[in-house]
Amino acid sequence: MRQSKFFMPTLKEAPADAVAESHKLMLRGGYIRQVTAGVYAYLPLGYRVLRKAENIMEQEMEKINVPEMIMPHLLPATMWQESGRYVKYGQEMFRLNDRHGRESLLGPTHEETFTEIIAKNLKSYKQMPIALYQIQTKFRDENRPRFGLLRGREFIMLDAYSFAATREQLDEQFDDEKKAFEAIFERCGVKVHPVIADSGTMGGKNSTEFQAPAAIGEDTIATNESGTYAANLEMAKSIDTFKQDPEETKELKKVATPDCDTIDKLADFLGVPSTRIVKSVLFIADDQKVLVLIRGDKQINEVKLGHILDADEVREANAAELKEITGSEKGGVGPVNADWADKIIADETVKGLYNVVVGANETDFQFENANLDRDFKVDEFADIRTANEGEPDPVDHEPLKFTTSIEVGHIFKLGTYYTDTMGADFLDNNGKTQPVIMGSYGIGVTRMLSAAVEQHLNGQGIAWPKEIAPFSIHLIQMKMNDDEQTALAERLEKELSSKYDVLYDDRKERPGVKFNDADLVGAPIRITIGRKAGEGIVEVKLSNEEKASEISVDELTDLVN
Ligand code: ATP
Ligand code: MG
Ligand code: MG
Ligand code: MG
Predict the structure, then answer these.
(1) What is the pLDDT of residues 529-543, one digit of tens each?
(2) Sign of CA dihedral 329, 331, 335, 337
(3) Which of 10, 226, 270, 345 is the most buried (most CB within 10 A)?
(4) What ligand 1 atom has the least distance to the C-alpha of 145?
(5) 155 ligand 1 Cβ < 6 A
């Protein structure tokens, strides 16, 4: 590629509002341009990097026999109403109405679509296990889009979905995807730590995040020196690890409890008219045991929010406990009524025992069907919950190091949340109807590229990891009106281009301008054709080294091979 024909609008200075180094360099190098807040155009240089990363992803998914496909961006609200996420996803969802007034949305992620289109077509255990993936633009109306591609409102994600007939199959699929993702990060030159993570609005009992340490990261992880321990601090502060015992453990769903301080907000969260709700109270015990009470009519239960118990269930499950708490003969045996609920809220013992989440903030959550002894163990994170940097990690007792990091990927064992709520069943090997067991696996492709830049800054510009560099070799001719230089440059361009992607700077620009731009292109190998071209000598500089060295053209062929 001739640089005189390549569109690469470089800037001397990054705009003042760019904070992250990756954002600054991608703007300065002409990789991307902002179109509107959190929405970017990928210019030729940026698009080359993107395509290289996508190619690697395609190869690694092929290796684990997961085929690629593509889902639409424009989705109907109906699927999301079925899963219960239409309301739960909240303001981050881009919503629109079509001309007939039908509610639609732009996909922020595709669990519902894959459940509808794939899981519902799996009729027999014989068709499983199977998984599919896509690399596609997602839309999330982030409250604070920032740091360039790190937090966009439109961004590219690789999202894979797995479908299994048994828990064992899901475990295997999860391991396969995890290994494929690790291979992808490795080849893209992004150093990551897998950490146990919060599943957010995805549901499901078990998820792992891939965290890439970087100065600009919005998350904090704790690691040890030898890499045998890594944990997400946010997670450590909020939850205990799950016991990995699928036999014993019922499907646990972590459900965000949004700001439900008014009946209207609660109704919104439940997706029911507010007239159906008379009064509600939610409690979360300190020890994670969940007690949820709701007063209202039974129709609330019909919206299938499992964590909301009706009066009968409350009575059955917690009769003794409620009696104790309320100190009322009625407590737990009579129907839940408004007076009773008020009494509980006001009760000093209850305040001491329970975190009352009426008016909870968005970081609160609860588990349905959770049982402390059965479903949680308190060892691993309990230790670092109060730990400081330098204290021993709970596994190998090496000093803990706290680092900011970027969530570049997130994989989930979803279980049957979507297939239950949306009705995707199959016949198992005993001829019994069962819900399909799902997993979902995502990499923020564009975010990962920013993370790669953040981890490969070399002072002047970007030292791109070899496999995702926009060009492998950058040929720079110092003087365009020197015939010897032109002859050698054109010869090298021709020879090297048969094997590598080569950018040839044939512009009539001063060397200073060319070198500055070359720092922004960040090709792993830079070859400068200057004064000694007549003797067949060029200068070679590797992007991860400070100094250039002179080399003969013959030796060069050895070097690049
Ligand atoms: P975050 O915690 O940063 O908001 P998330 O947990 O909401 O991310 P997931 O739903 O787990 O994101 O989506 C899978 C992956 O998509 C993330 O691990 C991340 O790499 C990427 N991603 C999520 N939101 C964005 C965004 N706004 N811009 C770019 N990439 C994103
Ligand atoms: Mg998010
Ligand atoms: Mg997250
Ligand atoms: Mg996530």
Answers:
(1) 999 999 999 999 999
(2) positive
(3) 270
(4) 27
(5) yes
